[in-house]
Amino acid sequence: MTTDAITARTVVFHELGDPEVLTIENLDLPALGPKEVLIRIEALGLNRAEALFRAGTYYYLPTLPGSRLGYESSGVIEAVGDDVTEYAVGDKVSTGPNIEMSSAGVYAERVVLPVESVVPRPEGLDAVTGAATWLTYSTAYGGMIETGGLRPGDHVLITAASSGVGIAALQTAARIGAIPIAVTRTGEKSRYLLDNGAAHVIASADTDVVAEIRRVTDGVGAQVIFDAVGGPGLAELSTAAAHNGTVVVYGWLDQRPMAMPMNWPLRILGYANMELSVTADGRRRINHWIASGIRDGVFHPHVGAVFDGLDSIRDAHRLMESSTHTGKIVVKL
């Protein structure tokens, strides 16, 4: 199969805004380059970054009008470029790394991508689960282990713990022998978080998080704080870190300015997934980490909700913005 004269139903938006700006249009696929593959998309994994991008509050802005959307998907390769040796027609793959969403967003029935944006789908994962795996576990691995230096026996404080990345972080920390402490807004998700690897659960709405961290760590504090929120609360949260501890900020759910914490010595690092996934060696390490965790049964990607078809994309985004779900939201094509 070639991409000549192939069109694909594709989600685009022409202005910034809420989920109502998302539309579906038939777009022509570009000609297949020598190091590119054509993928028939089977499922899309939604990420908070896509809601921010759509609203114009992500770290880079969409190119309008006609911006595409989406990082993560799973599907089957239907055609390969002349110089592609990594994949063959029929291979089951996922997408996620090195995607500029305006031009190459994967919310579509078919996409053409460079091989650097494609990873093998781990053995045993169906399409829906495959779309809920790569970005969450690669963020947890890259942020906590490669950047944060998390080690066995370390306490790690994980905010937004019921999110897709939060669940992956709990399982990742538990797998290396660290002690994950989950922070969530209320206690109603405690059993779910404990079942996914949390050693302790703290409900921030009715508990002094810093005091509770000090209590469960016998006054030492957490060696690593893995934070998705940022904002002015980061300064207080950082006081829960151990002496010479590390704070890794990987998300900006609270986009107000961050205040500088004063409990030095303390390392504060920002983590962006593209720093690791941009290189072939980084992708190799990520892929082996995820595949081995799936294989030994420690990693259980959690899908919190499944929507049917591209026409449900607005509803899926509304649920994501409500923050009432757990785990990952997936749209099945």
UniProtKB/TrEMBL annotation:
GO molecular function terms listed in the Swiss-Prot or TrEMBL record: 2-chloroacrylate reductase activity
Pfam family, one: ADH_zinc_N
Leading EC class: oxidoreductase
Claim: ATP-binding is one of the keywords in the record: no
Membrane-crossing segments per the record: none
Keyword Flavoprotein: no
InterPro entries: ADH-like_C (IPR013149), ADH-like_N (IPR013154), ER (IPR020843), GroES-like_sf (IPR011032), NAD(P)-bd_dom_sf (IPR036291), Zinc-ADH_QOR/CCCR (IPR051603)
Keywords: NADP, Oxidoreductase
Highest taxon above the source species: Bacteria
SMART domains per UniProt: PKS_ER
Enoyl reductase (ER) domain mapped to chain residues: 17-331
The protein's Enzyme Commission number: 1.3.1.103
Gene3D superfamilies named in the record: Medium-chain alcohol dehydrogenases, catalytic domain, NAD(P)-binding Rossmann-like Domain
Signal peptide as annotated in the record: none
PANTHER family referenced in this protein's UniProt entry, alphabetically: QUINONE OXIDOREDUCTASE (PTHR44154)
The protein's name in its UniProt record: 2-haloacrylate reductase
